[in-house]
Each structure stands twice: as C-alpha cells, then as structure tokens.
Amino acid sequence: MDKTLDRFEKVHIIGIGGSGTSGLAKILKSLGKIVQGSDLRAGPQTKNLGKLGIRIFYGHAPENIDSSINLIIHSQAVNYDNPEYQEAKKLQIPIISYPRALGFLMREKRGIAVSGTHGKTTTSAMITFMLKYAGRDPDFVIGGEICGIGNSGVGKGGVLVVEACEYRRSFLNLEPEIAVITAIEEDHLDYYRDIRDIQDAFENFSERIVPEGKLIGMIEDPVVALVMRNCGVKSISYGFANGDVQAKNIDLFESGNRFDCFYNGKILGNIHSSVWGMHNVLNALATVSVGLILGIPFSDIAGSLKEFSGVCRRSQVIGWVNDIVIMDDYGHHPTEIVATLKGLRQRFPSRKIIAVFQPHQYSRTRFLLKDFATSFKSCDEVIVPDIYFVRDSENERKLINSEILVERIQNEGTKARYIADFDKIVDYLMGHISHGDLVLTIGAGPIYEVGLKLKAALEK
After folding, report:
1. Which residue among the candidates 46, 121, 122, 340 is catalytic per the annotation?
2. Which of 99, 358, 367, 384 is in the most buried spot, having the most CB atoms within 10 Å?
3. 163 is known as an active-site residue
C-alpha cells in the first residue's frame, strides 16, 4: 500500500470514539476527506465529531460498510472478528490500524512523538500548549484532555504532536522528526517478555526518527540512557544533575514549581510552572528541549509553561466541599502513583490523604504486585475496589485479585481495605472522612466516578 493517505477520499473508522481515533478523524476531515465511523455507544468524543459533520454509527454492523468507502481504519481495541472488519475484507477495502494511519499522516508533517512508560500525556500536552502559545498552530492527538483545549486539534502550522504508545510496539509505525522518551520501566508485561524486550522496542523506535531528526531523553533514567547511547542519532538529554538541559535551584510551592533552567551549563532563565511535583519539572525540561530544537524563544517556552493549567485526570481537583478536597488522577503504574502522591504531599503537607485506587488489568497487577504494594507510603489509607478488567484472559483473573494487593499494602505498613463496589466505597468515605481530609481517586478505569459521587453526597 502507498504509505500516504492522499488517494483515499472516504474513510471509515471502527472505534471512532477513542481518544486517538477521534483526533485522527478531525485531522482527516480537515484534509478534505469524507470521514465516518462507528462505536459501541455515544460519548463526548462521538458527539463532538457529530457536530463537525462526521457521520457516526452506534453499534458495529456489516451494513455500516459499503463499496463507496476507500479505506478502513480500526482502533487497537477492535478484533479481527468484528463484523465491520469482516465486511471490509469481503469487499476488499484496504484496512489499516490506527497507529499505522497516524504514521502515514506523520509522513506529511513535522512529527513530534512523545513516548515513555509514564509522563508522556502531560509532556505531549505541555509541548502542544507551548507550540500554540508560540503561534506554531500544531495538529495534535494525545491520550488526555488538555484543560480548556481537548485531546486533539487541527492546526495550520505543519507540525503534528502525538502521544506514542509502546503497547504492541504501535509506536514503530511513526517516523518523527523529534522523538521524546520520558521513562522506560516494566509495563505491558502481558505483551513484553521483560525490561530488555521493552528496551529493544524503544531502540527500534529511536531508529524510526527521520534523517537529521533528534531524540530527546531523560538521561537519569538508566534504560533511557542506554537507548540514547545505542540510538545513533543526534540527541538532547535532560535531568536534574545530568543532561544538556537541567533544572537547578528548584522550589516547590503549593501553586506549582519554580526553577532555573540551564542549557549546556549556561542559564536560560527562570521557569514557573503551574503544575506541581518533581515529575512535572522533568516534563517541563522535555518541553524546553523540544522548544530549543524548534528555535522557539525561551520567553515563549517559559510563558507557556506558566500558563499551562494541566491535563484532566492528572491530579485534577474535582471538588472542594466543607474543606474536604476531592482529586482524581489517571496514574495506573507504580511509578506514577508514587510521583502523584509525593506531589500531593508537597502541596498539602498537613492533610490526611485517602487514596481510592482501582488496579487496571489483572496481568499488570500480578506482574507489578510488589511495586504496587510499596507505592502508597505517602498516603494515610488506601481503598481498593475490584481490578478493572481489560484485555486479560479469564485464566489471568484467577491468579490475582484486589484482596491479595490489599494484604501486600498492609504488610508494607500502610492502612488498606478492600471494598468491591463504588457505592459502598462512597458510603464508607461518608462515614470516615473529616474536615481537612483529601480523597484521591486514582486509576485508568472509571474510578473517577467515586469522586463525583462523593462530591454529590457531600454537597447534599
């Protein structure tokens, strides 16, 4: 197949309501293509696409596919037995995955791909916000909602920012001009054998950078450092004590972070970021690195980071009732949990912190059980509902459960309890929280619903 999207006039996207596929749909429509798609049910993304004139089918059915369609794009959640996929094969319509379509699109633009086990959503959002602030008007498709902007957008600057996922090596479809690696740790062990296998995937990703392109990496992550050493392309590193771009004289305030930014040993200036935590200092350094490569004035880089208000579901305050703070975060990997809780301790040092953590995937919980058990030392109590079931086999469900995780957390010295049902969690919290407490819902599944229900109950 020709590795561009030019010759396809009418495109159907199976699973169009996803954060990535919905963004791709917007960009394809902006290129003048007829775009339609299907999803199981209505949601915010499908409703927004409908307002743009994109036809949406609810439910997957063979009659949604006809011979007028030139290309089928499917999300990674779609299986080969999907009726629309099968109908497209019957009609001999070309079929490609969402990551491959994104790769084709990147060939036509200056691509910035942000990868890493954690930090990639916030870093992608910071970079996008910086480009918009500096007047570079990018296209962007990322995994989270930039507060006030959304998870995707169409621009005229010829730059495409994407969040590059390593699951199933999907980021190997991309050919970026600038690639960022924020961190490399064990994750997706239902697919990868071990950390060496993950490192190999990131090394292959670095080889996808176009000639004269650059790799940006967090040099104080030992596996990222190995990838950068082996990649054979020009690179810029960042970190606290090491790297081309460094943060020094770091002050952590309730309102965010402030630090002096250095490049090659010379101070560029001061940065005040409105998002807090040491992990967000690193995300800001990655953004500075991208800005330097693109020749964006440091005043614009610093100005954008000061104005950047964050990403939805990243330490997002969703309620403040009777001096009880309710927050939500997407973190679902042990390192993300540790960073989030440390950031909250920085911002709210005297509050009691109760974390409501919903594990995401049985396989991830089992493989990283020891790390999850030690992740909650910065909070006072942990409540764990049932594990969110996605992608796992039924056999995997028999090998691990939330009760096992709770017992391990307790053994590490943190108060923890298992409550399976969301409504019962809210009931428990209503009977045990006090003025001045902070409740954090955290996880990649629908655990945020607990926070919303708690807020409603407190307001009554």
Report:
1. 121
2. 384
3. yes
pLDDT of residue 277: 84
SS3 call for 346: helix
Q: Model confidence over 388-441: pLDDT tens digits? A: 988 788 888 899 999 999 999 999 999 999 999 999 999 999 999 999 999 999
Residue with tokens 């096992």: 404
Active-site residue, 121 included: yes
CB 73 within 8 A of CB 24: yes
**Domains delineated in the chain:** 10-97 (3.40.50.720), 109-307 (3.40.1190.10), 316-459 (3.90.190.20)
For 15-26, what is the mean pLDDT? 93
Tell me whether residue 10 is one of the annotated catalytic residues: no
Give the pTM. Answer: 0.82
Q: Catalytic one among 26, 29, 109, 120? A: 120
Q: Which amino acid is at 260?
A: D
Residue among 397, 342, 407, 400 at smallest CA distance from 373: 407
Which of the following is catalytic: 163, 166, 175, 381? 163
Q: What is the pLDDT of residue 3?
A: 64
